[in-house]
Design a protein that fits this description.
Length: 91
């Protein structure tokens, strides 16, 4: 795990395995279905967003992108609490 962000009801995580970045949004307590999302893209390719956005009980994602040597944009959502960041973790 290289980064994370708390959301109301859970956390969105960013991981990297030396080849691909991966984003997953996980609820603190599974329950009834609620809109959840995980999104990721390379910053230079704004038209190619890899996203999982639907109603889930526990987690959204994982979404993955190969971005070695590039910056990424990533984020997640649970219900109406959405967070995203741009042009980060370059390298």
């Amino acid at each position: 795990m290289i980064d994370s962000r708390e959301l109301r009801g859970g956390t969105v995580y960013l991981t990297y395995n030396g080849e691909k970045n991966c984003v997953v949004t996980v609820r603190d307590r599974p329950g009834k279905r609620v809109r959840m999302g995980a999104g990721l893209r390379t910053s230079k390719d704004q038209s190619n967003v890899i996203v999982d956005d639907a109603e889930y009980t526990e987690f959204a994602g994982p979404v993955k992108v190969e971005a070695k040597g590039e910056c990424i944009d990533w984020g997640g959502l649970i219900g109406d609490d959405e967070w995203e960041t741009f042009k980060v973790h370059c390298g």
